[in-house]
Amino acid sequence: MPKGEVLLVSGSFRRGSHNAALLRAAANALPGGVTHEWLTGIAALPLYSEDDDGERPPLAVEELRRAIAAAEAVLIATPEYNGSVPGGLKNAIDWASRPFPANALRDKPVAVIGASTGIFGAIWAQAELRKSLRTAGARVVDADLAVGGAHDAFLPSGELRDPGLATGLRDLVAVLVAAAFEPLLTDGH
Ligand SMILES: Cc1cc2nc3c(=O)[nH]c(=O)nc-3n(C[C@H](O)[C@H](O)[C@H](O)COP(=O)(O)O)c2cc1C
């Protein structure tokens, strides 16, 4: 297994976020030799404007693009706000999608998971996020995980309480790692 880094992105900036908890559980499922970093600074991004997206974009934007470019793979956990992707996360995807088509997300293996306190586990937000990521050129892996009832979904150890979800998370992490490190074994898009 070659060394590499998975960038963890939480669509929630809330202290005590269930989506951040989901990413911590995912990080524990990474195989040896694969490290992880947390994307910070999404909340510091300005609202996207093409006027600001020239030769010298804002520093927070450069850092966002650098962090994505440096990672072998990206794992995003998103909440659902009013049936869709939280605005802050969508704003980050919009910044990361430019310049098009040679953006930091292009051909980047990305997996999307999500947690919500409702029963569906942010499935609408996840679907819309995958659509945006594919439009930006990312290689979104064919795997998903929806954690509903997120306020009761984690054990004190940080693991998912539901064994089926815990297995699903491990399987999804394995699919993402395979897409990043064994691209010849996957079927591309
Ligand atoms: C503005 C707002 C809108 C929300 N809309 C939805 C929704 O459409 N569907 C849903 O399942 N939960 C919705 N929720 C509840 C979130 O699932 C819940 O707050 C969740 O814990 C957010 O994720 P986090 O714990 O990672 O911050 C909403 C919460 C907020 C604050």
From TrEMBL:
By its UniProt entry, which InterPro entries does this protein fall under? Answer: Flavoprotein-like_sf, FMN_Rdtase-like_dom, NAD(P)H-dep_reductase
Instruction: Spell out the protein name for this chain.
Output: NAD(P)H-dependent oxidoreductase
Listed under GO cellular component are: cytosol
Per its UniProt record, what Gene3D superfamilies does this chain match? Answer: 3.40.50.360
Molecular function (GO) terms listed? FMN binding; oxidoreductase activity
Coiled-coil portions: none
Q: Which domain of life is it from?
A: Bacteria
- Specify the NADPH-dependent FMN reductase-like domain's residue ranges: 6-151
